[in-house]
Amino acid sequence: MVEDYEIKTLAQVLIKSLKLYGNNFIFGTTGAGMAEIQDAISVEKGLKWIQALHEFTAVSSAEGYALAKNKTGIALVDRIVGTQNSIGALYSSYLNMAPLLVLASRDIPGTHLLNDPTSHYSSKHLQVIEPWVKWSNNSQSEEMMEEDLSKAFFITQLEPKGISFLTLRHDLMQKTYDGLELKTKKFYYNKRLPDMDTVRKIGDKILASEHPEIFVSHGGRNMEYVKTMVDFASHFGIGVKERRYFMSFPLHNEMHLGFVPRMYIPETGNDDLLLLFEFGILPGNAFPIDIDIIDFSTEFVRRRDIYSGGDYGSSNLFNSIDIECDLGPHWN
Questions:
Q1: Which residues of 81-194 form beta strands (DSSP E)?
Q2: What does the alpha-carbon distance between residue 219 and residue 213 come to, in Å, rounded to a whole number?
Q3: 27: burial class by Cβ within 10 Å (0-12, 13-18, 19+)?
Q4: Exposed, middle or buried: residue 210 (CB in 10 Å: 0-12, 13-18, 19+)?
Q5: What does the CA dihedral 302, 306, 309, 314 come to, rounded to 10 degrees?
Q6: Is the full-model pTM beyond 0.70?
Q7: Would 10-173 and 196-331 be classified into the same CATH topology?
Q8: For residues 135 and 151, is the Cβ–Cβ distance under 8 A?
Q9: Torsion of the alpha carbons at 34, 36, 38 and 40, rounded to the nearest 10
Q10: How does pLDDT run along the chain (332 residues), one tens digit per residue?
Q11: Could you tell me which CATH number the domain at 10-173 has?
């Protein structure tokens, strides 16, 4: 990598901005539609390119990085063909609520890249991935790139976390730098918490129950959440069962009561109160009607709280309290 260099293209401005947002890795494949972006990566110190042999692998790797580091992972894919190749990985990232920024190069008719008349054109680039992303946009001008990046990064981190998808015109990325400097934004996010009346109602129900139990599924995708759940369970003396999508509760803890099936209603024994944390059930199923249920989720429809996702959402219908909030250490 070159320490000091003269910025000459808009692609170099883009890559410099990604680094300023605190990103040190880009996962991607090489392709004719992104040569100028990869040239920019090659001269930016401290930014590491992770080469993949297929777009599915590139996006999957960025997903793993995002979940492990709890920060936005970045993947670069080649035009509409690379976007189609990555669909399975995009769906996985959607299910796992991974904060991800996917950048796809895009050809514009009449602007042949490398004098190649067979470049992949598509006016429906975004429609291919729309069901699984939180926000997407065809970045059309250098004037909008600053806002596009700012919005994309911010949206990936909003709960439930997910994917932003931007297409980048190769002719725009090749454009000679004309003094544009992209500013980066520092984000402050006010956590969504239950109000005090709701907190008191939850506390009253827990104290009034004889056999409460906690079911948790996706909470461990935020690593700091695990300690919060341990503290919560220990404070009230409530046992915890989980679907192990993520490490949501430590196995050695005395409050850990084991695991429940992913696709079926778990056994509830003599439970009289269930606290469900991002724990949905598949359509057509139901908990026993005589059990009181408090359901916590980061999204109201609870599409990703159930096994294998889908767009119907969870069938936790007759809960006494439905709470849409952020899950994490601020619960303390």
A1: 100-106, 135-139, 163-169
A2: 16
A3: buried
A4: exposed
A5: -40
A6: yes
A7: yes
A8: yes
A9: -150
A10: 444 556 788 888 888 888 888 888 999 998 766 788 888 888 888 889 999 999 999 999 999 999 999 899 999 998 888 999 999 999 999 999 999 999 998 877 666 555 665 566 777 888 889 989 999 998 888 888 888 998 999 999 999 999 999 998 888 888 877 666 667 777 777 888 899 999 999 999 999 999 999 999 988 888 888 998 999 999 999 999 999 888 889 999 999 999 999 888 999 999 999 999 999 998 888 999 999 999 999 988 888 888 777 788 888 878 899 999 887 544 44
A11: 3.40.50.970
Residues 6+ positions from 102 with CB-CB distance below 8 Å: 59, 62, 74, 75, 76, 77, 86, 90, 129, 133, 163, 164, 165, 166
B/e letters for 63-87, b = 16+ CB within 10 Å, e = fewer, are bbbbbeeebbbbbbbbbbebbebbb
Amino acid letter at 256? H
Amino acid at site 50: I
In the block, residue with structure tokens 């990604």 = 18
Residues with Cβ within 8 Å of residue 229, at least 6 apart in sequence = 214, 216, 219, 240, 248, 249, 277
| 3-state SS assignment for residue 259 | strand
Query: Tokens standing for 160?
Result: 């439930």
196-331 is classed in which CATH architecture?
Answer: 3-Layer(aba) Sandwich (3.40)
Residues 292-315 as b or e (16 or more Cβ within 10 Å = b): bbbbbbbbeebbbbbbebeeebbb
Q: Which amino acid does the sequence have at 160? A: P
Domain residue limits, the chain: 10-173, 196-331
Computed on alpha carbons and rounded to an integer, the radius of gyration of the chain in Å comes to 23
